[in-house]
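Can anyone check this?
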Amino acid sequence: MQLAVGDSLDNRYVIDRPIARGGMATVYRCVDTRLGREVAAKVMHEQFVHDPVFRDRFRREARAMAQLSHPNLVNVYDFSAQGNAIFLIMELITGGTLRELLDERGPMPPHAAASVMRGMLTGLAAAHARGLIHRDIKPDNVLINADHRVKLADFGLVRAAAEATHSTDQIVGTVSYLSPEQVDGSPMTHASDVYSAGIVLFELLTGRTPFAGDTPIAHAYARLRGDVPPPSAFIAGVPKLFDELVATATARAPEDRFRDATEFLHALDDVAEALRLPAYTVPVPTNSAATRAAAHPTNVDMRPSPAPEEGPQRAPAAANVAETRVATPRASEERLFPEGQAQMPAQAPPAYHAPAQQMPPAQPPAQPQKPRINPVTNRGGVGLAVFVVLAFAVIAAVAIGGWWFGSGNYGQVPPLIAV
């Protein structure tokens, strides 16, 4: 279904502008006219609408996320699979993705990587506690909100652990982060997500993924033949304890890994405490697709509207939508997960230092005011009397001084005659 600015989903969610485009769906910024708030709508691409496999994945994501409510997970508010529009209404994230942060700043020092992983693993642990397996852990699905909170998103490949004892599907997921079980069809457990999370930690520390191949299949099968190397082999200064964390998380045999995200998180906290890593606030990407979209004010009236009535998908002309259409962003701006390097700002932000304390915005300089001058006048009666007395005193002093230095002080002294 092709959507334009001003179109309406379910006669409730008015499209404001596209944020990003993925392989399966496009994410739009919308306004919920019933509640008067901004949300994100993940709308399945038209070519997948009638595919039962993709419809099932979308429905599975909605149901999985509806079971979860956690600060480190992206909240899902609504879902619809009626007609030609299949969409998911989610919390609007105004920051960016971990992928975009890595593109901007490169590899992270241990304290920064630990902070990112702590947020991601906390959200994943909440999903694991409900018996769910994410199956697509990667930097593109880790979001950083404007308040610097790390959130895990995109449960489109999620499976209940009870349903994942055997995989008959084709290889699904992103090839760089697949677990060995996803490649060879072995039973999947929570440890499969742990493996992918270990690859993410490796990439945070080194700026690269551990395996490569001439083809996607060769790339995928590389993890069946070799272990993930220690990050310190690529970046000097990575502590040995982080090498051990990565090695345990990415062991080829699932039984040799951390059992689930909770166990991985506890091990990470132990390492951070042993190394005395400082607390760190994860920076928000400065040039993300979400940030660019948020820079444009919404074109939709944010006031809540009455309960919706039956009507067509396109909002009527009398709806609270600006008549002026906003041009759709360029294709490069619509992709949430762009291929290649993200566009860099004019000056790259500094590497992962603790963010400077936010200063209040500079106030414009105050306009200088003319000083108030109180004029002195001698026109008052008292002032005139004082002036006269002072004038007579000065005249008298001058007269006495003239007399003193004239005849009064110097007289004629008679000459002395020696006898």
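Reply from J.R.: I decoded it. The longest helix spans residues 381-408.
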